[in-house]
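user: Please supply your own:

assistant:
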Amino acid sequence: MHNPHAAPRKNQVLAAVIGNALEWYDFIVYGFLAVVISRLFFPAESEYSALLMATATFGVGFVMRPVGGVLLGIYADRKGRKAALQLIISLMTVSIAMIAFAPPFAAIGIAAPLLIVLARLMQGFATGGEFASATSFLIESAPANRRGLYGSWQMFGQGLAVFCGAAVTAAVTHGLTPEALDSWGWRIPFIIGLIIGPVGLWMRRHLAETEAFLEVRQAPKEKQSLARMLRHHLRQVLTVMALTVCGTVAFYVILVYMPTFANRQLNLPLNEAFTAQVIAVALLTLLMPVFGALSDRVGRKRLMILGTAALLVALYPLFQWIYAAPSFGRLLTMQMILCSLLAVFFGPFSAAVAEQFPAGVRSTGLALAYNLAVMIFGGFAQFIVTWLIHTTGMAIAPVFYVLFAVGLGLVGAVFLIDRTHEARLAVVDDATPTQPAAPSGRTGSASSRTVAQGA
């Protein structure tokens, strides 16, 4: 059936994705600059100790993510997706300004790292609600048979953020001397995020609320609470957590930590490491919507099982291969293979996890499951792999942590409730000109609304 609101819907999705990309850019650029920040804000008796403190501070931001996720998720389920998305990007803009203009340890002493920690806590609170609110908005804005494609734009936004963050950092590290980088150059990526932050806020002010949320708000109210949501949706929470462990560890080790790994463990120049990363992440970003759209045809579960199984097979041999003879060519090849396999997993990921919860508790359920997994396993991923390398003496120790996470993701994919078939049935119901009344009194349109809510 022709949708007269198709063009506005596309504009809405574009605004959500651009704002999402700006949000994640601000959050992850810290991870790319951990080596520089460790020298300026966390002076210690050894380079290892300084880097460990800097990566721990990266993880500190994740401590607040479950708190921000639940509070902002409840806010989004009560006040709307639009209101939550506006609040989130406002908080992120303030926090990145704190980092961009923070004086180093040499200037203000212990107040310098404390300021960085405070900013990271605020960033963690904000991003805690970003995934759930933005994903709920995208899924609820999509036609029932295209939720995989629309949901993939959430991960596309994250991939775009990694690409932009890596590209800007690569340009800064390649174009400036080490002295200039330490003096002022490291601030450039943060200032860029600060400048474009208001653009995202302006775009989100013009979003329209989703129909699914408006229908739930108009329906008879049923008292919702975190305990009630857990009581009725515990299996879904655990499944989403398992899948998120896989995604978050892969994201922060393979995409964010890899330049540091290539520089510290493989002795490759930092600018070469970032160049390889930019190319591989660009491939990942382009492939995710392809596999998101494919999941609308073949099912989310099938693709996610395939992606996690392929990663389990490929990870260890690739890490051994790059360690045996480190080079730019091998690093690029390894990252392109891993990013292609991650695209198979990430493409359907957002739609798959959002479809586990009904619209009335979607943001809350997603925020809790997603952020708990990210806090425990993803936020401290860089800290954990840095510690693993130091403790075991094995340069490729990070691969074992990623293998554990991908294995858990495979278990989650097996237990996933695949609602792709239900979405296709909803489209058939809506396309049927007349429907005889069902015994329950529901029409095809009502049926499709139930499916759209992920019930």
User: Anything to note?
Assistant: Residues 1-7, 427-455 have pLDDT under 50 and may be disordered. The domain at 8-418 is CATH 1.20.1250.20 (Growth Hormone; Chain: A;). The chain is about 80% helix and 0% strand.
